[in-house]
Amino acid sequence: MSPLTRRVNLAAVVLPFVAFIVAVVLLWGGAVDGIDLALFAGMYLVTGLGITIGYHRLLTHRAFRASPRVERVLAVLGSMAVQGPVIEWVADHRKHHAHTDEEGDPHSPHVGHGAGFRGLVHAHMGWLLETQGQASKRKYARELVEDPAMRRVSKLFGLWVVLGLAIPSVLGAVLHGDWVTGALRGLLWGGLVRIFFVHHITWSVNSVCHFFGRRRFAIEDHSTNVAWLAVPSLGEAWHHNHHAFPRSADHGLRRREIDISGLVIRGMKRVGLAHDVVLITPERQRQKEVGAAPPPAVHA
């Protein structure tokens, strides 16, 4: 990782954290209203789904299919979450699945940094200053590298980041009726504070969901399901389910496992924005559960 990239990543960690501290002070003083919180919630949902549905379930795992236009829109929304250019993100995540919790995993809490707290810190955000973006894009994201439109989206990552900050700033100015204070409030809540929460919820899937939680399936990695993280992560915290069935459009495989991203994908299918949605039957799930009987032998 180049020194410039490391500094940029460090700024992307530190600036939203500073904004979060400012927001806490404002909340304590009551200097927050419904517009601020609506901008935060709206931008959190839109950019968070850009990551969970666009970057992750569609472009990384092909859990469903969509038109090139829908793919590009979701990639732009994911870019606004400020987690790296889309091709780089996909390559890193596919490498994570290829080497989960083994040597070569970009962000395992169990490899390279010792167990316990140090490993958790590395998996949560330490890897951003060491291994992010190091996965071979040709090897792990070839079809995206060979797609000119997706290459453009990825190359214009900086523009999408600026757009993701400009939109809530303009909305804040318009809705508050003040082009200075309103814009700053929009930038704070819909921009920087939103980035802080989207970042740390996503990073918690890398760290917490490979360390604490419950397991249901007989798979070899350390992935877990963490129920309390499911709603803020928009369903990504059913991470053990995801590692058992990486191509599943649903990560919440049981009725009580709330998966907002999976519900949105089903809604997209209803209106024709998604097709070939991959779903895992209860029978396939039972075959992979811990203690399940092996399938019967097939005799010629």
In angstroms, what separates the terminal alpha carbons?
54 Å
**Count of separate structural domains:** 1
Count of helical regions = 13
Largest β sheet strand count, sense and barrel closure: none
Number of strands: 0
Give me the Rg, rounded.
20 Å
Order of helices and strands: HHHHHHHHHHHHH
- Principal-axes geometry comes out as globular
What is the residue-mean pLDDT, rounded to a whole number? 93
- Portion of residues in beta strands equals under 5%
Structural class: mainly alpha
Helix content: 55-70%
**Unreliable residue stretches:** 295-300
Characteristics:
300 residues, mainly alpha, 13 helices, 0% strand, globular, disordered C terminus
Please give a structural write-up.
The structure is a single chain. The protein has one domain. The radius of gyration is 20 Å and the shape is globular. The protein has 300 residues and is an all-alpha fold. Helices cover 58% and strands 0% of the residues. The protein has helices at 3-29, 34-60, 68-79, 86-98, 117-124, 137-140, 142-145, 148-155, 157-176, 181-207, 239-244, 260-270, 282-288. α2 packs across α10 (181-207) and α3 (68-79) packs parallel to α8.
Task: Describe what is shown at a glance.
The chain has 300 residues and is mostly helical. Helices cover 58% and strands 0% of the residues.
Write the layout of secondary structure elements.
Layout: H1 3-29, H2 34-60, H3 68-79, H4 86-98, H5 117-124, H6 137-140, H7 142-145, H8 148-155, H9 157-176, H10 181-207, H11 239-244, H12 260-270, H13 282-288
Helix pairs in contact: 1-10, 2-3, 2-4, 2-9, 2-10, 3-8, 5-10, 9-10
